[in-house]
Amino acid sequence: MLVFDIVHHYLNHFLTPKHQQDRLQWAKLVRNQDWNNVIATDETTFRLNTIRHMHWQFPGNRTVRRTVKFPLKINVWGCMTAKGFGKIILFKQNLHSHFLCNEIYQNGLLPTARNVFGRSKNWLLMEDKDPKHRSTFSRDWKAQHDIKQLPWAAFSPDMNPMENLWALLKIKVSMRKPSNIKELIKAIKQEWNLLPKELAENLMFSMKYRIESVIDAAGDYTMY
Questions:
Q1: pTM for the whole structure
Q2: Which of 59, 98, 162, 217 has the highest CB neighbour count under 10 A?
Q3: Is residue 46 classed exposed, middle or buried when 0-12, 13-18 and 19+ CB atoms within 10 A define those classes?
Q4: How many Cβ atoms from other residues are within 10 Å of residue 97's Cβ?
Q5: Does residue 9 sit within a domain?
Q6: Are 141 and 112 in contact (CB under 8 A)?
Q7: Residue 27: which of 218, 224, 223 has the closest Cα?
Q8: In a domain, 40, yes or no
Q9: DSSP for the chain?
Q10: CA 196, CA 149: separation in Å to the nearest integer?
Q11: What is the per-residue pLDDT across 73-87, written as a single tens digit (0 to 9) for each?
Q12: What's the structural domain count of the chain?
């Protein structure tokens, strides 16, 4: 009889007691947040020839998977609200605060906000604590454009539903088997446009369950 192992790696930062306490306090702070008024955002990278983190192997066997040292890649910023998916920005360069504000916020975040909320400024930006998001330049730019920020806790990828979205989108893109950057970009855009708005609604409204899970876990990581 053949027996196989499923190999799947989950990588999370180690949480100190201080990190857990911060996550717990944050969860209690946003527990009653109206998620209809939030734009969730995040960045990720799509690579050609990526190594899959789940595969079949015989028990005790060491599987060697070969890849290129510097795979071709494209960076992606995306956003969503409870009413659907917003703009995406694809870019090849490394992300820095000036590009984030003058290109991504200007051409991605603000148009999405206008499409969803009209002239209302009664919405919150949800993004992680990446230094580029918190730099003086970024803070000043957001203040000048009346962008209000949802508080966030460090080391909390499980709280951002965009992470779940990226995982799904990468599967869909990989199924198209793009062989070059041009095909990869095309696949990302097409799959993004095919995402149903009900998915965005479900992901955004999962926030209340994520928050309760953090509280139940006393600030530790959750199943999300």
A1: 0.85
A2: 162
A3: buried
A4: 19
A5: no
A6: no
A7: 218
A8: yes
A9: ----EEEE----PPPPHHHHHHHHHHHHHSTT--GGGEEEEEEEEEETTPPPSEEEE-TT--------SS--EEEEEEEEETTEEEEEEEE-SPP-HHHIIIIIIIIIIHHHHHHHHTT----EEE----HHHHSHHHHHHHHHTT-EE----SS-GGG-HHHHHHHHHHHHHHHT---SHHHHHHHHHHHHHH--HHHHHHHHHTHHHHHHHHHHTTTS----
A10: 26
A11: 999 999 999 999 999
A12: 1
The domain that contains 32 carries what CATH number?
A: 3.30.420.10
The Cα diameter of the chain in Å comes to 66
Question: pLDDT digits over 87-97, tens only?
Answer: 999 999 999 99
Residue 24 has pLDDT above 60, yes or no: yes
Residue 26 has pLDDT above 80, yes or no: yes
User: Which tokens sit at 80?
Assistant: 């969503």
Any domain includes 7: no
CA 187 to chain centre: 18
Residue ranges making up the domain that contains 140: 15-44+69-216
32-36, 53-57, 89-93, 199-203, range with the lowest pLDDT: 53-57
Contact 156, 128 (CB under 8 A): yes
Indicate whether 37 belongs to any domain. Answer: yes
Instruction: Specify whether the CB–CB gap between 154 and 19 falls below 8 A.
Output: yes
